[in-house]
Amino acid sequence: MERSFKSEVAKLRLGEGETFHGEGILAVTKALLQSGVSYVGGYQGAPVSHLMDVLNDARDILDDLGVHVETNASEAGAAAMLGASINYPLRGAVTFKSTVGTNVASDALSNLASAGVKGGALIVLGEDYGEGASIIQERSHAFAMKSQIWLLDPRPSLPRIVDMVEKGFELSEASNTPVMLELRIRACHVHGAFRTKANRAPRFSRNRALERPDFDYGRICLPPATYAQEKHKVEVRWPAAVRFIREHRMNERFEGERDDIGILCQGGMYNAVVRALQLLGQADAFGVSRVPIYCMNVAYPLVPEEIVGFCAGKTAVLVVEEGQPAYLEDAILATLRRHEVNGVKVQGKGLLPVAGEYTGEVVLAGVARFLDAAAALEPIAALKVKAAQLLGEPVPARPPGFCVGCPERPVFAAMKIVERDTAPFHVSADIGCHTFSTLPPFNIGHTVLGYGLGLASNAAVQPMFGGRTVTIMGDGGFWHNGLTSGVASAVFNRDDGVLIVMKNGYSSATGTQELPSSPQHSAHKAPDMAIERALEGIGVKWLRTVDNYRVGEVAKTLKDAMTSAYRGLKVIIAEGECQLERQRKLRPETAKKLAAGERVVRVKYGVDEDSCTGDHSCIRLSGCPTLTVKDNPDPLRKDPVATVIDGCVGCGLCGENAHAAVLCPSFYRAEVIHNPSLWDRVAFKVRGLFSGTAIH
Amino acid sequence: MSLPDRPITILIAALGGEGGGVMADWLIDAATQCGYPAQSTSIPGVAQRTGATTYYLEIFPAEREQLGAREPVLSLTPSPGNVDVMVSSELVEAGRAMQNGFVSPQRTTLIASTHRIYATIEKMQMADGRFESEKVLAAARQMAKKAVLFDMRSLAQQSGTVINAVLFGAIAGAGVLPLPREACEQAIRRAGRGAEASLRGFGAGYEIAAGTRRAAEPPPPPRRATGVREIVELGVARLKDYQGAAYAALYLERMKPFLESDAGLAAEVGRHLAVWMSYEDIIRVADLKTRRSRFERVRREVGAMEGEPVVVIDYLKPGIEEFASVLPAALGARLAAWAERRGKLDAWNVGMHLKTSGIFGFLLMRSLAWLKPWRPHSYRYREEQRLIERWLGHVADAARRDVALALEVAECARLVKGYGETHRRGKASFLAILDALVENPATADAREQAAAIRKAREAALADPEGKALGSALGKPVVWLKPASQNVKSPS
User: Fold this and answer.
1) Which of A367, A459, B365, B453 is the right S-S partner for A276, CB 3.0 to 4.6 Å?
2) Has the ipTM of the complex gone over 0.90?
């Protein structure tokens, strides 16, 4: 695991009336226990990984309560697990990143929503939208509408989020419908406080077993049950939900003196709206606003009576709805029309951008235009203009990239070297840290179609080329679905391509969670599930394993795969432990040895500044953050020379690259011997006599 | 008592892995100790993998008791023009903050470390793609209400800690937050691990920001020779060291016609000529790698303490090219031509991990350096001198027409550098420009010709793969045949 969650686990123990301080997603985790869940599952992904991470570290608390925690193999698996709440009064929750996870889960979600639930079922969605998002930009809202799953979008304050989790379960049970709770990135990571309640032991749990199975054909997805389910959704469950939302005041209405206008916003947008009003002098620091606000903590379904009640009699309202299509704005317009409230002008996407994140700046601009106060925006524009003038040109972009010593980087260096000899080839990329290969300096990878779908996305590309193509897949993607949708299909269809499986041992991009093939496992996971055996079992005949850091070997193996007479899927397992995780284990060990006076050899790479000519070809093959440039110490040269700065973990890639690509002789490997033995010291004195390198 | 009408807003720009999240936690803890409502948000995601990221905090500077049941509404995103404290862990990130409108002269205290961590696109150019630090510093002084700028990374290194501790100290010391020093230090202590080192870094940052201690002067940039005299002196010394007095005399001889003309041109020619004449062949590399000063530099760079042995292993991979380069000229030429024809230039390189700090490795390396007297008879020597003469001839010709044009031609020498394939590519770019724009120019106008040369050279330096140069020259440039053509999938 990327980090230990010991202090967070302690927060899950808080009892009645204590104060929780921490992140939004941890508050949700605590709220699940307060709600008496019987089971929790999920699949890691920013920004909700911590929910599962913390629960995995909180086994003793969960064991006391009898709560089952499942690390699901995919989001589909997580959503399907909610099936436990169909027949039984079990509260359950799962979490994943949206919309990518929701896409994967949607088969199970549709079936779940159609069958309906007896026990409260909650899906906690990390809405990865806007700045910092690493996925395609779509809305979860569409899933809610198409399957009739209720969608909560709480305003980002911890007490409100916790309340919505608890109410979410009740809503789910009152309307026999699963409920989604969407939290945007910043809301997941918002640090705040709330007053806790005691954790509730579930009615049925690992400790208090169900007595007998419950059969009800009405919950099966075959006709005629499916027809009845659809009717039940719209005739019974939907009205029940609307009634519950109204009665429990899940949406909030904040009155204001300017009753001729108003703002309707998603719960998640509330703080940005209030800030905009504050900056325009229309609200105070505590959110007391002159402009009335209707805050929709439930984004779906809408409560028509509340909307009509808020809008009626006003001349204009603004809908602040992040994302597109503008489902809310359209629904509000339709609702008002249906209720013959025709005097109010509904504005939204006309004043705010149709697409993109609604940051503070964007919402301010929209609200200012709505209030005819656009002049307030001029100083901001002027600031940017002045800065741009002073800076002369835009500052360089700095996207995320491979970590120092990352074991995936050398594979792409090798690929670049191979491409110099062969013609360039098509590379189907996948999702994981390795997607960074698409960025400079590598720019490798032509398409990304989904997690674990690299090989599947190559299926029609391969036959269209005369030569072979290459697919990248991570070990995370492999277990997520790459084994079946990719490998099994490729073997079955006699695909002739080359697959590189990046085996770094963890689900690294999401926080180094354990995978079935991780080198070590915590006690509650099965050990010894191997990618190699799975591949052999599925019928892969051409299988090689390479040590990533031996760039020459990797290049040679890849060339072999590209030229082999063997027809069929060729798989190269590129092995190298995630350096983040490796260093996390190594550093304390080394520190302990050093403190104990034991002999420790520290490896660092370097560049001889007088033989480096400053052409930076090494950097174009690496991109390592510690391989960088510095002013040329040679007074006759201008271009900066390469240098290896502190932080180098001694992975050896720069030296290997220099070798494999025949770059330059400037790289050296230095081994510093801490706490040298007597033999070390004598040997060095003797050698020093020859070479003038005696330690001084 | 009246309440503040708005929260204090703090935006922190950092790079993944610098502990920005920990710093945000310290700030929240310190604010909470003071009884102030506070909130932080972040967008870690994948940005934590070395990319640029931000943390945003709001502190409402009134104690909870004063507020009663009222709760301030705090924003999750910063808005331009409304940031009180802009913190940046690196200089260009401060530039990015200004670019995005987060630094305002009316309101913002900018606290930024002045060190640079170069982005990949800055480092990967063949020449110098670095963003000008001076521009960011100048902008910072104009854009911020108050600017606290010093090298926090080196201060962190001196204090044996991470940059976040120094930044936190600088924030507290700048006196713009209602957080007393004790509360901040208490927050660090409560977070545990590494607290002592963090407190040292915090203290150092605090004192500099508070003005009770001066930040260390940044080390002066390395000396850059500019005047003709200085350059020629350096050139002579360099070539004496490289090949002896006669070779240095050849340098002076070659410089003579230029010394009488434009001083600026003479300086550039003198610089490039000295560097080119001391080209890096294996003899030179072996010589540089076996100098005592080199081993001392390595010890310094890897931070070896007194009494700690350092093993130095060099990565060498000589091949046909290197072998041919030291052969007698005629023989070397035939071997090199044969290898190029057959695509074998890189085919038989022998990878060596040579322990230069050991007796055997040292002697092997040193013995290559002893080939120095042989150098003038070698194939590479002849080739380099021919190309140098050709280049100098073109510079001199151009100088008779237009000094600016001559400067552009002279600057093209910058393309010929590196080793192995990089060197071949650079040389190919150089020859392509010579051919297309110097020897067969499309225009008779010296100014236009100079502009075309500059454009082509910059394209070649920015994109060493040669695609940009191809379009600058108006034709596709096919530099090199693949080293081996036999890599094809069986059909």
Assistant:
1) A367
2) yes
Task: Give residue-wise pLDDT tens across range A405-432.
Answer: 999 999 999 999 999 888 899 999 999 9
Q: What is the pLDDT of residues A488-517, one digit of tens each?
A: 999 999 999 999 999 999 998 888 899 999
β A506-507/A513-514 pair status: antiparallel
Which residue in A554, A596, A550 sits closest to A573, CA to CA?
A: A554
pLDDT in tens, B136-180: 999 999 999 999 999 999 999 999 999 999 999 999 999 999 999
Contact A157 B71 (CB under 8 A): yes
Which CATH number characterizes residue A382's domain?
3.40.50.920
B353 touches chain A (CB under 8 A): yes
Does A617 contact B78 at a Cβ distance shorter than 8 Å?
Answer: no
In a domain, A396, yes or no: no
The answer to whether position B294 is within a domain reads: no
Q: Which residues of B touch A658 (CB under 8 A)?
A: 315, 317
Residue B265 backbone phi and psi in degrees, to 5: -65, -45
Q: Which of A379, A637, A659 sits opposite B81 (nearest CB)?
A: A379
Domain count, chain B: 4
Cβ contacts of B313 on chain A, cutoff 8 Å: 668-671
Residue range(s) defining the domain that contains residue B232: 222-278
**A153 and A210 share a domain?**
yes
**Same domain? B237 vs B362:** no
Residue-level pLDDT at B193: 78
> Are B161 and B239 in the same domain?
no
Contacts with B14 (C-beta within 8 Å, 6 or more apart), sequence order: B20, B23, B52, B53, B54, B55, B88, B89, B90, B93, B164
Interval B1-35: pLDDT, tens: 588 999 999 999 999 878 899 999 999 999 999 99
Is there a domain that residue B293 lies in? Answer: no
B316 and B198, same domain (yes or no): no
Angle at A681 between CA A678 and CA A687, to 5 degrees: 140
Q: Which two tokens stand for residue A77?
A: 């698996």
Partners of A441 on chain B (C-beta within 8 Å) are 120, 124
How many Cβ atoms are within 10 Å of A383's Cβ, its own excluded?
Answer: 23
Structural domain for A417, as ranges: 409-581
Domain of A221, CATH number, reads: 3.40.50.970
